[in-house]
Design a protein that fits this description.
With 133 residues, the chain is α+β, with helices and mostly antiparallel strands. The chain has a single domain (2-132), classed as 7,8-Dihydro-6-hydroxymethylpterin-pyrophosphokinase HPPK (Alpha-Beta Plaits), CATH 3.30.70.560. The chain is 28% helix and 29% strand. The protein has helices spanning 15-27, 68-81, 123-132, and strands at residues 2-10, 32-37, 41-43, 55-64, 96-102, 107-108, 113-114. Strands 1, 2, 3, 4 and 5 form a 5-stranded antiparallel β-sheet that branches. Strands 6-7 form a two-stranded antiparallel sheet. The longest helix is centred in the middle third of the chain and has 14 residues, at 68-81. 35% of the residues are buried. The mean pLDDT is 90.
Length: 133
Amino acid sequence: MTICYLGIGSNVGNRLKNIRLAIKKIKELKEAKVIKLSKIIETEPVGGPLGQEKYLNAALKIRTNLTPTILLKNLKKIEEGLGRTKTIRYGPRTIDLDILLYGNKFINRRDLKIPHPKMFEREFVIKPLVEII
């Protein structure tokens, strides 16, 4: 099994409920086990349109047998199931799930980049991530 780190965020609707539901759905994945969850922090939106609500953000440490591609597909299904729709880049969202790190893999495809390309620029990613590493 591979150790993987996920970022999670929400700034639409009941943000805490959205995050809890997403974590529950991740725990239900047959080939993934949640090992650790960071504290949930409230942060200002970065980029995107003005006037967005604040985010709640956290990081998860999981162990998985899923390939990065299959894990990403599962995360996208969870996002869709929780009402996420693609609107504007960096726009508001009910839930955002990102693969931050996947073992020691480096992937640079159009649909998947690991490590997450902007994670080192974003305190709302690094702070929870450092807490659980």
